[in-house]
Amino acid sequence: MALVEAVPGGRAIDLGCGTGELTKVLHEAKQFGSTVGLDNSEAMLEQAVAHAGGGLRFELGSFLEPAPGAPFDVIFSNAALQWADHEQLVARLTAALEPGGQLAVQMPANHGHLSHVTADELAAEEPFVTALGGHRRKWPVQPPEWYAHLLFRLGYRDIDIRLQIYPHELPSRADVVQWVKGTYLTEYRSRLPAETYALYLDRYTERLLPQLADDRPFLYPYKRILLHARKSLER
Prior knowledge:
Blueprint: E1 11-15, H1 21-29, E2 34-39, H2 42-48, E3 56-60, E4 72-78, H3 86-95, E5 97-108, H4 114-123, H5 128-131, H6 144-153, E6 156-170, H7 174-181, H8 186-191, H9 194-208, E7 218-231
Parallel strand pairs: 1-2, 1-4, 2-3, 4-5
Antiparallel strand pairs: 5-7, 6-7
Helix pairs in contact: 4-9
């Protein structure tokens, strides 16, 4: 959020707004005239509506569909855009930006960590590969330089892209499994029968933990990409 410049009276959208706390902070801190928080979870939006008012509203919808109310001065997203093909998505978001508008995105980029690599390797083994129909999770997040080239081709300038490591201190290495269960493993959980997923989780734990240092507390370094760019006034 610190990368976003204030636009007094401007129009903004938060893609994947969740419970809306950050959306409200962004709306007020950057002095937007109107902001829409968009999310595809009714449960999240039930909590978000408590923050509505003063030009801030929340809507049910997907960032994979055309943005309601476009064009915007700012398109913002925190930890949501990792679920889509980025070349097509960024091009469509660009079309929804005013000339001179800002695109500001944060995305997890920890797919090279053992916690993620081990999950995908296990998905290629039996009985999971059969139960998944050969499916393995595809992670669309690319290296920072890939986004620099894409944004430049799409007519952005003032491009600022950072790969940042957030050091999370966990009680032990076993807590990495708990962390990944609620994030990266959710797709496998949704595709596997309950009993098969329980077996998958047991094997995942057995394979992952010996590869991690038995430190207490345990440092779990988590990579994220922070991206901010301004659409050219000429496009």
